[in-house]
């Protein structure tokens, strides 16, 4: 896992920083673990744009990933590390002893020919999935469940991890990647380690064309528009436009949008 810079032979290459993909060992995905990705172009069932600046981009297929790790007490061998165009992390292709193959999010330090296993009484080793009640405090974990059996929801993108701070009865205090501390049931499963491809945060797209390959269309700044098009538009010269906000007046910085009576508030110990 590393990054690659280019000689500035063109204007765009001067700023381009991409992954070197040296950890990838298999270039073609597992056919049985693919499903089509149907694009909406940001439009809803009525054809109206509900998510702006989406459209185009390279064709992709969704990799079916085992976030639940529910094949318990059966060892699996890592047979490949693969690229996934739909996420920042890499995927590890597992082959179980019965011949079944599954994808999992690859952590730092997991290599081809390593063995991983999921279960309650398994070794605390990178790549193993264990119930939180059996994981010592202070060890980095990822792909953490909110509810038992629902599959991992937290810390699944490149470089992310959580840490168990302490345990009290049925709940553990888990520090999220954002710094928030939450109560999570000790019967929930998590995977040992930190999500791989840590250098993803250093990537620089470099040119507008690469954004289009990713399905991202251009957007105009609010301050560059006219007053009837955007609350931040208008003014003589380069006016700043006041408080940053959306075209519909929703403030973008500092406005708390979380519902005050959200049912999960009781599980949050410390806000981020």
Give the neighbour order of strands across the main sheet: 9-16-10-13-14-15-17
CATH class of the domain at 24-38 and 59-196: Mainly Beta
**Cα end-to-end separation:** 29 Å
Overall mean pLDDT: 94
- DSSP, total strands: 17
Q: What would the principal axes of the Cα set say about the shape?
A: globular
Task: Assign the CATH architecture of the domain at 24-38 and 59-196.
Answer: Roll
- Assign the CATH topology of the domain at 24-38 and 59-196: SH3 type barrels
Q: What percentage of residues falls in helices of 4 or more residues?
A: under 10%
Structural commentary:
The chain is mainly β. The chain has a domain of 153 residues: SH3 type barrels (Roll). The strands form five sheets. The protein has a seven-stranded antiparallel beta sheet with strand order 9-16-10-13-14-15-17, with no helix packed on it. It is globular, with a radius of gyration of 22 Å.
Topology:
Elements: E1 3-5, E2 17-19, E3 34-36, E4 61-63, E5 76-82, E6 91-96, E7 101-105, E8 115-116, E9 129-131, E10 140-142, E11 144-145, E12 152-154, E13 162-168, E14 171-175, E15 181-185, E16 189-192, H1 208-213, E17 268-270
Antiparallel strand pairs: 1-2, 3-4, 5-6, 5-8, 6-7, 9-16, 10-13, 10-16, 11-12, 13-14, 14-15, 15-17
Q: What key phrases describe this protein's structure?
A:
272 residues, SH3 type barrels, mainly beta, globular, 7-stranded antiparallel beta sheet, 4-stranded antiparallel beta sheet, 1 helix
């Amino acid at each position: 896992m590393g990054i690659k810079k280019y000689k500035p032979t063109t204007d765009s290459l001067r700023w381009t920083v991409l992954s070197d993909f040296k950890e990838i060992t298999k270039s073609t995905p597992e056919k049985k673990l693919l499903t089509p990705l149907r694009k909406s172009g940001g439009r809803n069932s009525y054809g109206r744009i509900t998510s702006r600046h989406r459209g185009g981009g390279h064709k992709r297929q969704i990799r079916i990933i085992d976030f639940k790790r529910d094949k318990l007490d059966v060892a699996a061998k890592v047979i490949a590390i693969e690229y996934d165009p739909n996420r920042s992390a890499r995927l590890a292709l597992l082959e179980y002893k019965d011949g079944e193959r599954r994808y999992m999010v690859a952590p730092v330090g997991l290599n081809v020919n390593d063995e991983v296993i999921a279960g309650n009484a398994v070794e605390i080793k990178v790549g193993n999935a264990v119930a939180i009640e059996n994981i010592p405090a202070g060890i980095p974990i990822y792909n953490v469940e909110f509810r038992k059996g629902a599959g991992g929801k937290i810390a699944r993108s490149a470089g992310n991890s959580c840490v168990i701070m302490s345990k009290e009865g049925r709940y553990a205090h888990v520090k999220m990647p954002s710094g928030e501390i939450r109560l999570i049931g000790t019967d929930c499963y998590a995977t040992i380690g930190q999500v791989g491809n840590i250098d993803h945060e250093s990537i620089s797209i470099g040119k507008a064309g690469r954004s289009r390959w990713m399905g991202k269309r251009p957007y105009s700044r609010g301050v560059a528009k006219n007053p009837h098009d955007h609350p931040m538009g208008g003014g003589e010269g380069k006016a700043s436009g006041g408080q940053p906000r959306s075209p519909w007046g929703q403030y973008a910085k500092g406005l708390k949008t979380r519902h005050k009576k959200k049912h999960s508030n009781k599980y949050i110990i410390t806000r981020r």
